[in-house]
């Protein structure tokens, strides 16, 4: 089960990271205009929001594990199909399919951790969030050599093999469960001291929007995602306009991605040990503030310092993933909260990169655009006070006692 969780995590960013470095090569063969290229850039956040919101509904009908297997196969099919297409619109459609499977996987991993590792939430979340960070940094190093050696279609399609590998442990889990049921046993139905009545837990997905805790987590997640995607979209140009070479801007973005690795491991472990991890989130928000102020006031002399601070600030993401499980009592509750937080959060993040570009174009300066991002960090800090408060989501679903 642990192997299955880690292998799924390895797939959850590949559809993005494997294509962006070779997009110019793809565009020579598949005639993208700038509008379609812009749609491709917006596809990850939109797909994560839409398919992530659907994941709890499907999981309630099929179960967590079968839904995860279907999501990974959907993602792999999308990767293969877009590598064979000749039409730009079809490439985008199949990219959405691949990203949609990954968006469902994003939502399903936290409740699987809750189900199988309720006493190791921090450690297992650290393992899979670090694997996700690794899957963001590694494909760009391999995509270009693969495209040059075998063509872009092989480079894009070959990553689907990882999706197939990721489903194998879950097929073993499902086969063992089916065998146990034939023998009249079902390990997943053993009573647990921490369980709540199924009707209460399973019916909560549609009520997460009533919970301040769910909204606090969703806004925190959304503001962090907005900043992350805005940085990856615009940091190279910010540094280029400040006087650095184009190649240097790309290297700094690579460092920004790599710096997410240590906090992906440490963040969940620290959050699991803290009754209220808001001081940790506040520290990471302060890293965002310091990094943005540095880019606005002295972008070139202190570039390394600002990039390190902004890279560390990405640790908000794994902390929120851990809180999804730390603030729920059951796998059903974690499924509902994960779908709500990631569905709303990614939807909130969608306009972020566009807004930063519009503000820069309107003002001719990056300072107002960075000021907009500073405002979103302030929203993150305020929302996280609610998200980090010691509370349990299922308690908000309990029926009111009769008077």
Search tags:
mainly alpha; Growth Hormone, Chain: A; 2 domains
Number of helices: 20
**Overall SS class:** mainly alpha
Query: Which homologous superfamily in CATH is the superfamily of the largest domain?
Result: MFS general substrate transporter like domains
Strand content: under 5%
CATH architecture of the largest domain: Up-down Bundle
| Poorly predicted spans | 188-203
Distance between the termini: 45 Å
Helix content: over 70%
Question: What is the fold named in CATH at topology level of the largest domain?
Answer: Growth Hormone, Chain: A
Largest sheet data: none
What is the topological layout?
Blueprint: H1 2-11, H2 14-17, H3 23-29, H4 34-62, H5 64-84, H6 88-116, H7 121-137, H8 139-150, H9 152-157, H10 160-182, H11 198-202, H12 212-241, H13 246-258, H14 260-273, H15 278-297, H16 303-313, H17 316-326, H18 331-349, H19 351-363, H20 366-387
Helix pairs in contact: 1-6, 1-7, 1-10, 4-5, 4-6, 4-18, 5-6, 5-10, 6-17, 6-18, 7-14, 7-17, 12-13, 12-17, 12-18, 12-19, 12-20, 13-16, 14-17, 15-16, 15-20, 19-20
In a nutshell, what does this entry contain?
The chain is an all-alpha fold. It is built from 20 helices and no strands.
How does this model look, in words?
By secondary structure, the chain is mainly alpha-helical. It folds into two domains: 1-190, Growth Hormone, Chain: A (Up-down Bundle), CATH 1.20.1250; 207-394, Growth Hormone, Chain: A. It has 20 helices and no strands. The chain has helices spanning 2-11, 14-17, 23-29, 34-62, 64-84, 88-116, 121-137, 139-150, 152-157, 160-182, 198-202, 212-241, 246-258, 260-273, 278-297, 303-313, 316-326, 331-349, 351-363, 366-387. Helix 4 packs antiparallel against helix 5. The protein is globular, with a radius of gyration of 21 Å. The model is unreliable at 188-203 (pLDDT under 50). It comes from Kineococcus radiotolerans (strain ATCC BAA-149 / DSM 14245 / SRS30216). It is found in: Cell membrane. Keywords: Membrane, Transmembrane, Transmembrane helix. It is a multi-pass membrane protein. Residues 1-396 form the Major facilitator superfamily (MFS) profile domain.
